[in-house]
Structures are given as C-alpha cells and as structure tokens.
Write a structure and sequence with these properties.
32% helix, 23% strand, 317 residues, 8-stranded mixed β-sheet, alpha/beta, 8 helices
Length: 317
C-alpha cells in the first residue's frame, strides 16, 4: 500500500511538471496555439543541439574558368583553390570582404594554373596555419611561385591521406582522394574532400576524373552528400554515373567560365546531372554574393542556397 501511494505521488509530480512547462508566468494554462509553439520551438532547439548548433557557409566564388571555394565555420576559414591569375586579386578582395583575417587551411586540389594562381595570391596576403596539397611536382611558373612563398613563410604543408579528418570550427572535413601516389593524368592527383556540418555534407573533388572517382567508390569513405561541386568544371570525363549515384546530391555547383574554350560543362555531364534530379547552380550564369559567388548555407539540419538553380540543362559540346 505504501509503495502504491508513493507511486501516485510520483505520477502527480510528473504531471505537474509537464503542466508547469506549458504554463505562463501567472500559473495559468497557456492557450493551445502557444503550447504548440513551445513544442515546436523545443523541437527546433533539440534538432539544433543535435546538429551542433553551428552554421557553415560555403562560397563558390565566381573566378571564371577556374575554381575557388571559401568555407566558413564561425570565425574559422578554409580556402580550397583560388582561380587563375586574372582572378587572384578578386579572390583576395572577396576574402577581405568576408572578414577573413587568417586561414586555418588552404587546400590546393592540384597545380593547374586555374586553381593555383589565386592560392599564391592568398598565401602572400593572409597568415595560413596549414596547406594541404598533393605530392607531385610540375615545372610551371606558378608552381615555382607557390613553392617559394611556402618556403619563405615556412607554412606547414601536409600531403593528403585518405581518411584523415580535420576540424574547422564546429565543422569537419575528411580526405577522399587521391588514393594512389602515381597517376598518368595529373587531374587525378586532385585532393578531394567531404565537408560535414551536422547532418549536411558537401563534396569537392577538384579536377579528379573517372579513374579517381572509381577509386573513391571502392574506398571506405561514404560519398553521400547534399551539395556536390562538379568535378573538373563539369567535364565529360568527370561526374560519372556511378559516382553521382553514390553521392545523390540535392544540389550541384558547376564552376566554369562563360563561353569557355573547353566547352564546360559538357552535354554528357549535364545529362547525367539531369538523370539524378540534382538542382544545378553555375557560376557562369549565377552570382549571388555581390554577383561574385554562389553561397550555400548549412545550419546543420538543412542547406539553403541563396539563388535558384539554373533552368537550362543545355551546355556547349
């Protein structure tokens, strides 16, 4: 009998606690609509807490025929590539407008001029904690400039190791490629990575083509993502059907120059994007931050893009 009474008292306390959560300051019950608001707000808070309550911005900067991505998590920044020579000062100016004082990471996907020139500009201007760059060399002038600034500033440089994980504020990223130390096609040396913020995933693969994509597919790292930056500017030799099926991105961002001589994005790639139903953004057609970049904002539970996808799936051949 005593246990029964104690049980009743505990039940009464629990019921009182629930009513107390849904009451106003005067002790009266809240109207039904206010109770619903409290429940909805509590659910939102719980979701945000589970996601780490963090916001990550990914800026796909319009550098013409090239690639440059700025990632921001809180006060922490990472630059992935920097565009060609004619975009170098533009990238530096853009970073300054985003209040970048220093870069936690600079990732050099590979050493093609349309990715590396702007990196050299950024290394000259901003303090950089660490550079992640592939383990091969080339004899280009911009590569020599890159090596010189690395040596001059004594910047720590790390070679990519598949599966290696790094933190950027409350976000994280994992290296997906390259999976080998030697390739005949220099594009396949590209450092590929997967950014994670709460439940959101972003994949960036530089100019990696089909050979590297198939190696990533054979690896242990999950490729599923919300946003995919089209490999090699939407080249016909990248974004293979199996790779896209493994990722199933809701959004695809293509960084390319208007009327570029390479015909990027290729019709074959555009057809593959259309087949999986991904929404396409193109830097040659859309600029959403001061008409210079496309920005995807992740709050840990959903991704918001700040301009609509391109309506046309037509592309130069």
């Amino acid at each position: 009998m005593k246990k029964f009474i104690i049980g009743l008292l505990m039940a009464a306390m629990l019921i009182g606690g629930v009513n107390g959560f849904n009451s106003d300051n005067n002790g009266g019950a809240l109207p039904v609509e206010k109770q619903q608001t409290v429940q909805e707000d509590t659910g939102s808070i719980q979701k945000a807490f589970a996601a780490g309550k963090s916001t990550m911005k990914v800026h796909y900067i319009d550098v013409g025929q090239g690639s440059a991505v700025l990632v921001q998590s809180g006060s922490h920044f990472m630059l992935v590539d920097g565009g060609d020579r004619d975009a170098s000062s533009k990238v530096v100016s853009y970073l300054k407008r985003q209040k970048v004082k220093k870069l936690d990471y600079v990732v050099v996907s590979h050493y093609d001029a349309d990715h590396l020139n702007g990196v050299v500009g950024a290394l000259n201007v901003f303090p950089v904690k660490r550079v992640i760059a592939p383990d091969y060399t080339t004899d280009s002038r911009v590569y020599q400039s890159y090596c010189n600034i690395i040596a001059q500033k004594k910047i720590a440089t790390t070679r990519p190791k598949v599966g290696a994980k790094y933190s950027l504020g409350k976000a994280k990223f994992t290296i997906l490629a390259p999976n080998r130390s030697s390739y005949t096609n220099e594009n396949d040396y590209s450092v590929a990575l997967k950014l994670v913020n709460g439940r959101n995933r972003f994949v960036i693969t530089g100019d990696a083509e089909t050979e590297s994509e198939y190696e990533m597919l054979a690896g242990k790292q999950s490729l599923s993502c919300d946003v995919y930056m089209a490999g090699h500017h939407g080249s016909a030799n990248a974004s293979s059907e199996k790779f896209l099926q493994a990722m199933k991105p809701k959004y695809t961002v293509i960084s390319c120059g208007a009327d570029n001589k390479y015909g990027h994005p290729a019709q074959g790639a555009m057809s593959r994007f259309k087949a999986i139903g991904t929404k396409i953004f193109r830097t040659d057609q859309q600029g959403t931050i001061m008409r210079q970049a496309t920005e995807a904002v992740s709050n840990g539970t959903k991704v918001r893009a700040d301009s609509g996808p391109t309506e046309s799936t037509e592309a130069a051949v």
